[in-house]
Amino acid sequence: MNKGVNLRELGLNEKLRKEYEEHYKKYYLGRVSVEHKNSYKVLTENGEVMSRISGKLGYQANLKSDYPAVGDWVVLDREDNYNGDAIIHAILTRKSAFSRKIAGKTSDEQIIATNVDTLFICMALNNDYNIRRLERYISLAWDSGATPVIILTKADLCEDIDIKLLEVQQVALGIDVLVVSAISKEGINDMLAYIKPMETIAFIGSSGIGKSTLINVLLGDEKQKVNEIRSDEKGRHTTTYRELIKLPSGGIVIDTPGMREIQIYSADLDASFNDIEELAKSCNFTDCSHESEPKCAVKQAVKEGMLTEERLRSYKKLKKELAYFEDKKMLSAKQLEKKKIIQMTGSLDGIKKIKNR
Fold first, then answer.
1. How far apart are the C-alpha atoms of 334 and 337, rounded to whole Å?
2. What is the helix (H) or strand (E) element at residue 176, kind and residue range?
3. Does residue 350 sit in helix, strand or coil?
4. Which of the following CATH numbers is that of domain 97-255: 2.30.40.10, 3.30.70.20, 2.40.10.340, 3.40.50.300?
5. CATH architecture, domain 269-330
6. How many CB atoms lie within 10 A of CB 333?
7. What does the mean pLDDT of the chain come to?
8. What is the pLDDT of residue 223?
9. How far apart are CA 31 and CA 45, in angstroms?
10. What does each C-alpha distance from 274 to 134, 173, 174 come to in angstroms?
11. Residue segments in the chain with a per-residue pLDDT below the cut of 70
């Protein structure tokens, strides 16, 4: 049996403890550290246990988001595996959930990590650099309920850092941006400033951009397996599943596999494209589509060089994707998740406070 953990050090707060004691005290409490196809590793005060969901929980689950995910607090019938897998009977209320639409025509969402305080959106400064993809990550991040921070990795492989940093800052409105290198250790201390006891950081981004390497630096060992850089300067992606890890410093990190597709399921464009939303308030028509309408403040900003045509196209594309899912009534799961957050904070303003804290 693995050594148990202090649940408070894993992020257990008073609100979660109260929910557990009021509704599930006859069970044991734990946090999901690894999610497999039909089973989960859960960290408890008595150690790590292999678990699976109860028949009732599976029957009540209508969508993939109704199942446990890495970062979830769950209640179990036992704290060991002496008599088989532990059974998960319920999931405590999530305070945040970073998710994306599942690839293909299905309308379901895939939850990447839950109960995250800060999202490290990682993008390499070499061949992975892609501003339009970054905008997608930012839109999803603001919608999750966690606070995004952008980590520009592999600074040692970039010769025009200042130019790229300026480009990123122009789309990362209200978001801190850090330039780091796992090789030279540049920016590592800046990252450490965001990692606090009892708080959870999730690393997200494309394959091979150095997420696991950075986590190894934070851990001080080679726990997360990584491979050598390829000839095209892209890392060889090795992380195949999401994993929650407690750091020696007291914080918690979640390592995630690289995401090749970032399909939008629900996103906060008001926050991620605040510059365009503010300009739109000055348009002559309240329902201006920023196409050919007269006195369009957004198009005027493009003409005057205050806004790039590429950013406007990206905004319209994401807006169109969201409208499609709204028309198809596909946002029910995300809406339910937001209701849970509203119940936790008391209002929509509470969500904004979480994002801006």
1. 5
2. strand 176-179
3. helix
4. 3.40.50.300
5. Orthogonal Bundle (1.10)
6. 21
7. 85
8. 59
9. 10
10. 15, 7, 9
11. 1-3, 102-108, 221-240, 260-261, 263, 265, 325-357
